[in-house]
Amino acid sequence: MDEIPIEQIIRSRRRSISLVITPDGHLIVRAPLKAPAALINKFVNEKSGWIKKKIGEIRQRPAATEHRYEEGETFFYLGRAYPLHIVESGKNPIERTDRLCVCRTLIPDIKHRLKCWYVQEAQREIHARCMWFSMTTGYTPKSIRISDARRRWGSCTSTGGINFSWRLIQAPLEIVDYVIVHELVHLKQHDHSKKFWSKVKEIMPDYERRREWLRENERLLRI
Ligand SMILES: [Zn+2]
Fold first, then answer.
1. Can you list the alpha helix ranges (DSSP code H) found in the chain?
2. Cα of 192 to ligand 1 centre, how many Å?
């Protein structure tokens, strides 16, 4: 029988063993402090069918491809695909119409300039959505910042601020909204307990569907 490699064993004061498959398809085992290695291996072997199925599913998910910044290449903004279009001149150096129009003069620095554009759009859009949800739910962050995080779409700080990765602005608005609500609820509920999820559900009854979308498509957003 072929062994399944365990990437990491996280021991804590828990009673049972559980398995986590990371978004890039690695196996992490959570185990009680004193669980013997033999017991952990036996547990992993018993679940090998499930583990292989999960890892297989992850490998089949779409992966982000490196941008080449060529005419016609697809860029995502709020869930819509925009082909890149190089223009000779324009009102703004970068403009979103039905295409993502970029002035030819930006080409030497296009990767950086497009990232700056995404950051700026994320700042405006995510800030506005966040303020709206804050007003309607009563969860008020001390600050809202846009980060360069590649793996975490949102996070909250110990001082009551929240951060969102600029990469999130590539996702559909309903997914952006879900990440915002998730982080706002964390301001008062710091864990992922039942209580946390029931608060999220109160604000967003269909959050599970949105969460699932993010799980399946997050690799696309990691440009
Ligand atoms: Zn969370």
1. 37-46, 48-60, 110-137, 173-186, 194-203, 207-217
2. 6
> From ligand 1's centre to the CA of 215, what distance in Å?
13
141 C-alpha to ligand 1 centroid (Å): 15
C-alpha 145 to ligand 1 mean position (Å): 17
What is the C-alpha to C-alpha distance for residues 220 and 47, in angstroms, rounded to an integer?
29
Per-residue pLDDT tens digits for 156-206: 998 999 999 999 999 999 999 999 999 999 999 999 999 999 999 999 999
| CA 190 / ligand 1 centre spacing (Å) | 8
CATH architecture of 109-221: 2-Layer Sandwich (3.30)
Per DSSP, the residues of 185-223 read: HHTT--S--HHHHHHHHHH-TTHHHHHHHHHHHGGGG--
Q: For the chain, give me the number of helices (H) and strands (E)?
A: 6, 10
The closest of 63, 80, 61, 81 to 173, measured between CA atoms, is 80
CA of 186 to the centre of ligand 1 (A): 7
CATH 3.30.2010.10 residue spans of the chain: 109-221
